[in-house]
Amino acid sequence: MEKPAWIDEVYIPPKYTKYCFVPSCNNDSLKKPDKHFFHVPYKNKAEWCRAVGKEVIPKRPLVICEDHLDLEYDLENYESWIISKGNAKLRPTVPVLKKISKPTETITQDKPGSSRVSKNKRDRPFFEDEPEPSRATKEKCIEPFFEAKSVMCKPKTAIISTQISPDPRDCAIQCNILPMRTKAADTHEASVASVPAVKGSTSEVSESEASYEQSTMTSSATHPIILNGRLFMLNLIEKKPFQYIGIPKKLYWVIDCLCNAHKDITKLDCIITLYKIKSNDTFIRIGDLFQISQTTLWRRFEKTLAVLTAFFKQFIEWPSAREIKLNLPGAFTTSVEYANIQAIIDAFEIEIEKPSDPSNQSYTWSQYKNCNTVKYLISATPDGLINFISEGYGGRISDVCLVEVCGFLDVIPPGSCILSDRGFKHLETILNKQSVKLLRPPSVFSDKKMSKDEVIQAKLIASLRVHIERVIRRVRVFKFLKPHSVVNNKCTAYLDNAVLIACGAINIQSPIIKRE
Known about the structure:
33% of the residues lie in helices and 14% in strands. The protein has four domains: 11-84, no CATH class; 105-179, no CATH class; 191-313, no CATH class; 318-507, Ribonuclease H-like superfamily/Ribonuclease H (Nucleotidyltransferase, domain 5, 2-Layer Sandwich). The chain has helices at residues 45-52, 71-74, 78-84, 183-193, 207-210, 229-239, 241-244, 253-261, 267-279, 283-290, 294-312, 321-326, 336-339, 358-364, 399-405, 408-411, 427-432, 452-477, 495-507, and strands at residues 37-39, 63-65, 105-111, 114-118, 141-142, 146-147, 152-155, 158-159, 170-173, 177-179, 341-351, 365-366, 371-380, 386-389, 393-394, 417-419, 437-439. It is elongated. Strand 12 and strand 13 (371-380) form a beta hairpin.
């Protein structure tokens, strides 16, 4: 029996149409898919209905379109919504709504001596208390007044038109409702009027345009405030540099010093490069956020990466034995053997895309991670300062071979003590030639049981080695260097630079072990 065709069909849930609940607005998500619609807070549904002239409160959820809101002031999570386009949340208080107009009321005259008013059921609450106009009052001014809890609407003065229409029995009264002016709105409009207009551009920008001391708002006929994407992101990064580029806020001036020393790069170039390493966002999305074309972004990234690598490499150095002992954590002072430890070493891997060359596929294949990786050797002092970081090697290389070829043996001082994991088993013979002592947990054999002293020693060394794991965890905070970031083949050549920049930035962050 053949399988029905509908079995393989993927179920796609239907999208319901959102209708703006403002009586005078006809916007919906079907006709205007580009507009944003926001859910009205359920607890304040009655106040929102009174603000737009609805006396009957619907039981269904209410939705309002962006035409009646000032998004920057009416949304609680405006900053996160404009970046991630997640769920927007309106403020609980009813704001001053825009484009709220009163509907048209029509007077129908059946006979010369009588008149009749026909009303729309939807707009009836506006004119519940209004007397029926007669022919004698047509030349008088009508000033209906409507007041709600959070908004006051007063119509313009309108005179009833006596012009004869195609049907001489019908004439209409048209009233336009104006929103109540508040002190905050006047102050806001004055500030907007004094700000020069700023237009975003996707082409290459000069240093003066990269400066974000300019205004972040511009006036428009359709939208009162239009936020420039690049200026918004630069201001956001300046407020939270550690979250977006990995630099502490108190050391944000380092970027200014770097730009002053190198005139060929701008502050914007440094921020974009650090943002790429920290967030690992695609170049297309970064170009949209900072309003730069993808070609220009690649060119700036390659040029700035070398400058940042040379700058942050200065923060990675091997301290003297005296400085290491002065900052030695209390857990290392339990014995003389552990007090002489100058470095804790370990290796970490970063997954990359499968190379097209078969030899490179074999060279980068990691049996431990079961994928193609690039391997690095990292060394840190007992208090968490990174004092050595190697270049990247294929994931196929063993830990002992990595120590031999990466240059770590050239920088380690003679007579020092190194703490490592159980995986560096055969490294002790190599280090003994340079008068360097290796401390690692005892080896485990399947046919031999560990003694009590060996178990205690293994637990103690594992408790001391946790500091290098915490350092590696800080490296992984830079999403470009995560274990399964799957670095693109085009970006694999920049991995060494990114690792050096991340390690240098970690050394200027707060220490891992906080001292009282």
